[in-house]
Specification:
2 helices, about 220 residues, mainly beta
């Protein structure tokens, strides 16, 4: 006990700081590394993403227990969630809300029987970069010119407390087309901006142009 008391006495400021920081990261805000290309071009490999963990729920620290709902996800939100279906932490964009009907034909969405419009930004032999004009949430996506099964799905109705999510890199994303709807109780928070980004192909040097980049800036 004397050793523990001495350890506490000599390091209590550091111990308190570590405890408070742990609670903050658990319940208030955190940052996540993005290791894959599934959200390109909005989020790229090496981005560290600041996530507001109070955006949708006030949670008991170190748990998934919601003490109070603070808001509901909206179409276009980029969410971080712990997916039981994928057995992994994922980051995707909300495309459909509870009660919505959604289908996709040739990588073009139809939401509540309204076809979403697309604006071409870039085009080459392999892929296109487009603006997907979701209502109040226009954003940039990438689509492949190589036909695949993931470019289509039949109309589905999203159940209560479930969300349909997709990656912005539409042909390179294990999203609701693979793992199914995302339950609300798996949500960890809303991704807001890039804190810092490390270029894996350039000796992990920071990408200056991505520091504090807003994920919801106009396309």
């Amino acid at each position: 006990m004397r050793r523990l008391y001495k350890l506490w006495k000599n390091n209590r400021s550091l111990i308190i700081f570590i405890c408070l920081m742990s609670v903050f990261r658990s319940a208030v805000a955190d940052w996540y590394e993005v290791p894959t290309a599934s959200m390109n071009p909005t989020i790229v490999e090496g981005d560290r993403i600041l996530t507001n963990k109070m955006a949708y729920d006030l949670r008991l620290p170190f748990t998934h227990t919601s003490l109070m709902r603070t808001a509901e996800p909206e179409v276009g939100d980029i969410i971080v969630f712990d997916s039981k279906a994928a057995n992994n932490r994922l980051i995707k964009r909300v495309i459909g809300l509870p009660g919505d009907t959604v289908s996709m034909i040739n990588n073009e969405l139809i939401i509540n029987d309204q076809a979403i419009s697309y604006t071409k930004l870039k085009d080459n032999d392999i892929e296109q970069t487009l603006i997907e004009n979701l209502p109040s949430a226009a954003h940039v996506i990438q689509v492949s010119k190589t036909p695949s099964l993931v470019q289509h799905f039949s109309k589905v109705t999203i159940p209560k407390d479930m969300y349909l999510v997709m990656g912005d890199n539409r042909d390179n994303s294990a999203d609701s087309r693979v793992i199914g709807f995302v339950p609300r109780d798996e949500l960890l928070g809303k991704a807001n901006k890039v804190i810092v980004s490390l270029d894996y192909e350039n000796n992990y040097f920071p990408r200056k142009e991505r520091v504090l980049k807003d994920l919801y800036s106009a396309p």
